[in-house]
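cron nightly-structures :: item 1 of 1
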Amino acid sequence: MTLTVEERAKVLVEALPYIKRFHGQIVVVKVGGNAIEQARDETLLDIVLLRYVGMQPVLVHGGGPEITAMSERLGIKATFKKGLRVTDEKTMEVVKMVLTGKVSPDIVASINRLGGQAVGMSGEDGPCIIAEPLNEAMGFVGRVTQVNKEPITALLGRGYIPVIASIGLGYDGHAYNINADTVAAELAVSLKAHKLILLTDVPGVLGVDGKVVAVLSKADARQRIDAGEVTGGMIPKLEAALRALDGVPLAHIVDGRTPHALLLELFTEAGIGTMVTP
């Protein structure tokens, strides 16, 4: 579809109030492997644009599909419980190799190529994310116990876009694999972000009728989890959104496969996906 000059001007005018409202604000954006691969350049271009219009984006990434593919190549079977990857010693080595050796550098290089300035890091750097074991059965899967935001705010203050891999450092000195949605939520609370946006590979939270729930209250979201209406990988996403609301005004679960999903959610009245509210 080709827009006329007048229609393009209307789009820009519609975006202006939102640009003014979010100017100078921190926005934490989490991208999943499947979501970013299907609209990679559009997503990262949105991140660059947010920085140029005065917002301070912080990008948190996972790499589930890449980790699974590398594990299979090495003969390591992937096992999941409630949407989380069971992580033994060998799997943890794969997680670090994939996230900090491939996914993060690729994202940083793409952002820089698109005109932004990005710096890659993991929770071990600083360290900015301190973790403890989630439970013995999950192996080296971590729970965030502390966020040291200074390394991240230092990058933001110098105009960089932090790109953070979801790995934490334990009190025992061991690296821990942490769900990227969880990391994004904890960072959003610590950084006093204005929004948390979780880009995923589904349209949003679906109701019993199979349609996207546009607005979901905190109480309703909790009820849906407890009733078993939300399953699989959506559980940690919705839990992350609920955690973020402890300090963040709004959380969004958005289909990252949609080109320019970030701009549609932030700068248009209708938005897309599911907005979780207090």
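cron nightly-structures :: done
The radius of gyration is 18 Å.
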